[in-house]
Amino acid sequence: MRRTPEVSPGAGGPGAPGVPGPRDPEPLDSGPQDAGPQDSGRQDAGSKAARAQVAQEQAAVPDGSDNPLPVPDPDAAGVEPDRMEEAVKAAAEASEAGSLGQPGKPLNRRSPFFVGLAATAGVAVTIGLLEVVIHARSMLILIGLALFVAAGLDPGVSWLTRHGVRRWVAVITVVLVVVAVIAGFLAAAIPPLASQTTALADQLPHYAKQLQDHSSELGKLNAKYQLEQRLDKVISDRGTSLLTGLVGAGEVVLGAVGSMLIVGVLTIYFLAGLPRIKLFAYRLAPQSRRPRVILLGDEIFTKVGAYVLGNVATSIIAGVGTFAWMMIFGIPYPVLLGIFVALLDLIPVVGSTVGGIVVTLIALTVSLPAAVATLGFYVAYRLAEDYLLVPRIMGRAVKVPAVVSVVAVLIGGALLGIIGALVAIPAAAALRLWLDEVAFRRLDSS
């Protein structure tokens, strides 16, 4: 039996140095088997240098020059057109779907740059808005007055729309009714107003004679206060200024007519688009608060409408009452003074009082008892309007305490004149509603 000789690993078998195994590739140049550490270091350095030279040759241009080929930059324009193409494609898809795309991620509002930019922009916007308000103050007042009148007429339009009338038809109907009322009022008032104004001018010499008659009431007042001497002094000293004042009054009248036309046109536009205006204003509130904002806003518009209609009704009653009283007691110029009191009564709290003082002074030309009776009539009317007419006509829609009404009228008149006095009470009512429904509730729960 023939035995296979055993070969130890140290004798050149597989796994021995210099002898390749069945799976090990045969080295090209094994070199001397007893190479030391210095020879191994030289071989590693040589292999690194060879690899570096190969990489340099691969990066060279084909013509053999040493200039390397340009390496594409991932941030170059080659990538941006792809993103732009994606954006254009997404925009086209959104346009086909009928939308303007989805909003992107919000900016980081806590970054220092965004905070500083927002603060600077806020200051700039505030300054710009203040400049706009200052320079366009008169026009903004007219716009606010037109919106106020439109809110006052909106209940009539809403009533018609609830009964099946289209809104544009309802708006035209309400506007025609208002125009007809104004035209009828002017047609009834202008002829007697002109005749009584002419009569007043004709009676001026008679009043001048009464000033000289010390037995008449005017004569007694003239003797006590030297009214004639003071009047002559004013005319002689300030004749030029009076003439200039008359010219200025003419300009004021023309400006008032133009302002009335602007307010009328804006009122029609606001009345036609008031639902859209309110919805636009409500959309400025966050979605979670919109239902409450809608309820509060509708309540404020209801208060404004009730106040405007009630104020017009009480003014008509004041004018008719003045006309009837003056006709009964024979006080001159009943139509003229009736219209005067009706217009003044539109100004809350103080309007009818001032009108009553003027009528009382005119009644003094008749007799002292007539003047005293007229004064008592207006005191009684003032109480009846405050405690009987206003609660019955306006109801609880505009429920503002008397002290708050007086303060609001004084502040509104000081800020915006007659227009401020007109809108003072509904503004106070809206402020009170906000305090009751928003401010006080937050304070109570805090």
Task: Explain how this protein is built.
The chain has 446 residues and is mainly alpha-helical. It has a domain of 156 residues. It has 14 helices and no strands. Helix 4 crosses helix 5 and helix 4 crosses helix 8.
Number of contiguous helices: 14
Through-space gap between termini: 109 Å
Largest sheet: none
Helix/strand/pairing category:
mainly alpha
What percent of the residues sit in helical stretches (DSSP H or I)?
over 70%
Rg over CA atoms, rounded to whole Å, is 47 Å
Instruction: Let me know the number of strands.
Output: 0
Task: Considering the chains and any ligands shown, give keywords for the structure.
single chain, mainly alpha, 14 helices, 446 residues, disordered N terminus
What is the topological layout?
Layout: H1 37-59, H2 80-96, H3 112-135, H4 137-162, H5 167-212, H6 217-225, H7 227-237, H8 239-272, H9 274-283, H10 290-329, H11 334-345, H12 351-363, H13 368-394, H14 402-445
Briefly say what this structure is.
This protein is an all-alpha fold and 446 residues long. It is built from 14 helices and no strands.
